[in-house]
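Note to self: keep these together.
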Amino acid sequence: MSDKKVFVTAAEVAAELNKGMVIAKRLLLIASNARALALRAGESAAGFRPITDSIDDLVRTTLDSSKVINGKAQRLSRIATAENRSALALSKFNSMYQRDKDAKYISSLDHVYEETQKQHVALMVEFRKEAKSLNDMLQDLYSELRTAQIISTMLSVEASQAGELYKNQLNSIATSVAESANAIQSHVSQSLKLFSELTKAVYAIKSTV
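Structure:
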C-alpha cells in the first residue's frame, strides 16, 4: 500500500467522524430546544427534561471520543507509512544480497540490514497495538450510540403523556434524536469499514517482505 493510500484512508476515517461530530453538535441544540419546550409544557412534560441531560452526555462522549480517534487514526497512518518504507528497504536489501552475494564488501551492510529488520518488526508491533486500540474505541463509540435509541423511546413515552399542545413537538424531538443517532452510527460504521481496509492493506505489505 502506497504512502498516499495510507494518508487518504486515514483522512477518510477522519472525514466520516467529522460528519458525525457535526450531527452530534446539532443534537446539543435539539436537547436545548427540548428543555425549553418541556419548561413551557410544565408538569405534563416534567419527565422530559432530565432525559435531555442524557442526550448531552451522549453528545459529549461522541465528540470527545471522535477527537481522540481522529488523533489515533493520524498516528496510525504515520506508523503504517514508516512500516511501508522499512518494508521496501528490506525488499531492496534482499534483492541486493541475492544479486551481489559474492561482492567483496557486501557484509558491511549486515549491521544496517539487521537494524532495518528490527525497526520493521517494532513498527509492526506498534501498528498492531495502535490498531487494536483504535478499533476498540470505534466499536465502543458505535455501541454507545445505541443508547440513543433508548433515550428516543423514553422521550416518546414522556411526549405521549404531555398535553396535546406540546405532544407533537415533543414527539418530533424524540424522532430527531433517533434519526441523528442513526446518522452518527452510520458514519462511525463507515469509519470502522475504512479502518478495516487500512489494517488489511498494511498487513498485506508484511506478507510480501
